[in-house]
TrEMBL record:
<dbReference type="InterPro" id="IPR052955">
    <property type="entry name" value="UPF0703_membrane_permease"/>
</dbReference>
<feature type="transmembrane region" description="Helical">
    <location>
        <begin position="42"/>
        <end position="62"/>
    </location>
</feature>
<feature type="domain" description="DUF1980">
    <location>
        <begin position="131"/>
        <end position="258"/>
    </location>
</feature>
<keyword id="KW-1133">Transmembrane helix</keyword>
<dbReference type="Pfam" id="PF09323">
    <property type="entry name" value="DUF1980"/>
</dbReference>
<dbReference type="InterPro" id="IPR048493">
    <property type="entry name" value="DUF1980_N"/>
</dbReference>
<dbReference type="Pfam" id="PF21537">
    <property type="entry name" value="DUF1980_C"/>
</dbReference>
<feature type="transmembrane region" description="Helical">
    <location>
        <begin position="12"/>
        <end position="30"/>
    </location>
</feature>
<feature type="transmembrane region" description="Helical">
    <location>
        <begin position="83"/>
        <end position="101"/>
    </location>
</feature>
<dbReference type="InterPro" id="IPR048447">
    <property type="entry name" value="DUF1980_C"/>
</dbReference>
<protein>
    <submittedName>
        <fullName>Two-component membrane permease complex subunit</fullName>
    </submittedName>
</protein>
<dbReference type="InterPro" id="IPR015402">
    <property type="entry name" value="DUF1980"/>
</dbReference>
<keyword id="KW-0472">Membrane</keyword>
<keyword id="KW-0812">Transmembrane</keyword>
<feature type="domain" description="DUF1980">
    <location>
        <begin position="13"/>
        <end position="114"/>
    </location>
</feature>
Length: 261
């Protein structure tokens, strides 16, 4: 008896979904946008996922056209309701390709909570906190804050400000104004990602400069100043007395990541 070739719609849908995810991951890695979603140390895992998707895609593609004897399918009863299981995957792909990739901005800082003005009073619990950059920063005349050390420097300034009073500091971030700030004050903020964009936390430092009111929320600044102690809502907090400020374009990769432990 001759075999009959039939179209397997389930295998076709699975192939399209697998191809979609492979193209999505590949596009994000080629363009560098993958770090808008996950920590760079997990990029290799995303690459591995693409390599695993390829054999699955080939397997499903082969099954699109089934060759079997007519008798084999005579008693088959397929439930079309099972095809609803593909809807979440299809919806995810449509959103990923149709919705533009946007980074977190100043509008979400208030919802997530900014750490820059937490009380700087030391306590016994601080003795157990890891300080990987403490020695290096204490020996440097100027604290150069960059993408690699941003989170650790902000932690040092918040928890151990007395160690850095009078030191020069340079850093980059976007403007955000918390409630209760004076007209000559603003926060300079970056989002720190530990694992993925869902756990992004705004870290920053209180800054004081004469023309602070001319910089709108979300504008990116590069500043140079002196670490001092200041007041915010009757709390003593670390702050930067800004000497120079320059407005810059938003960096291609706006997020920063903690040092790998």
């Amino acid at each position: 008896m001759r075999k009959r070739i039939t179209f397997n719609s389930d295998a076709f849908v699975r192939s399209v979904i697998l191809l979609g995810f492979a193209l999505l991951f590949g596009y994000l890695m080629i363009t560098g946008q993958i770090t808008l979603y996950i920590n760079p140390r997990f990029v290799s895992m995303a690459e591995l996922a693409v390599y695993l998707l390829i054999p699955l895609l080939i397997l499903q593609t082969v099954k699109i056209f089934d060759a079997h004897k007519p008798a084999e399918s005579s008693g088959c009863c397929h439930s079309h309701s099972s095809r609803w299981i593909y809807l979440p995957f299809i919806a995810t792909l449509l959103l990923a390709f149709l919705v533009p990739t946007n980074s977190l901005d100043a509008q979400l800082v208030a919802n997530k909570g900014l750490n820059s003005k937490a009380s700087s009073k030391a306590g016994p619990e601080l003795s157990n906190i890891a300080r990987p950059l403490a020695q290096e920063l204490s020996q440097s005349k100027t604290i150069q804050v960059n993408d690699k050390n941003f989170a650790e420097v902000m932690s040092e300034l918040q928890l151990f400000p007395a160690d850095y009073i009078g030191k020069e500091i340079t850093l980059t971030g976007f403007v955000f104004r918390s409630s209760g700030l004076m007209p000559n004050q603003l926060d300079l903020v970056r989002y720190v990602i530990s694992c993925c964009a869902a756990d992004a936390r705004p870290f920053g430092v209180l800054c004081e400069l004469k023309d602070a009111d001319k910089y709108e929320d979300g504008k990116w600044l590069q500043i140079q100043g002196i670490v001092q102690m200041g007041k915010y809502e009757d709390q003593t907090v670390s702050m930067v007395k800004v000497v120079t400020a320059k407005e810059i374009k938003s960096p291609g990769d706006p997020y920063v990541f903690p040092l790998a432990q």
